[in-house]
Automatic annotation (TrEMBL):
Residues 44-111 form the Protein YjdM C-terminal domain. Gene3D superfamilies: 2.20.25.10, SH3 Domains. NCBIfam families: phnA. Belongs to the YjdM family. It comes from Paracoccus mangrovi. InterPro entries: YjdM, YjdM_C, YjdM_N. This is Zinc ribbon domain-containing protein YjdM. Residues 4-33 form the Protein YjdM N-terminal domain. PANTHER family: PROTEIN YJDM, PROTEIN YJDM-RELATED.
């Protein structure tokens, strides 16, 4: 009987091993307890795999054209105080000069606090 271990929640590596009650990733060194919230796979992640939460600050990683307008959200635009929602556009935010808008998490990167 083989036991399948979940991939690393940090780097998504499949080479995870177990020592006592902890799971360890040999590639990035991340250690976590099985069943912890971070390895459940639920939650909204940014373009590089970081979990997002309400109130986080993110930056846009590519120029985004706004439908029905000639405006563009430029790469590097900081968006403060995001709100996570259900749906295709999973981030609600307010961008200065543009207003209230919905963004997809795949086009943003979380800013380190």
């Amino acid at each position: 009987m083989t036991q399948t271990l979940p991939p690393c929640p940090e780097c998504r590596s499949a080479y995870v091993y177990q020592v006592d009650s902890l799971l360890i990733c040999p590639e990035c060194g991340h250690e976590w307890a099985p069943g912890a919230a971070s390895d459940s796979g639920t939650g909204i992640r940014d373009s590089v795999g970081n979990f997002l939460a309400d109130g986080d600050t993110v930056t846009v990683i590519k120029d985004l054209k706004l439908k029905g307008s000639s405006s563009v959200i430029k790469v590097g635009t900081k968006v403060r105080g995001i709100r996570l929602v259900e749906g295709d556009h999973d981030i609600d935010c307010k961008i200065p000069g543009i207003g209230q808008i919905g963004l997809k998490s795949q086009f943003v990167k979380k800013v380190a606090d």
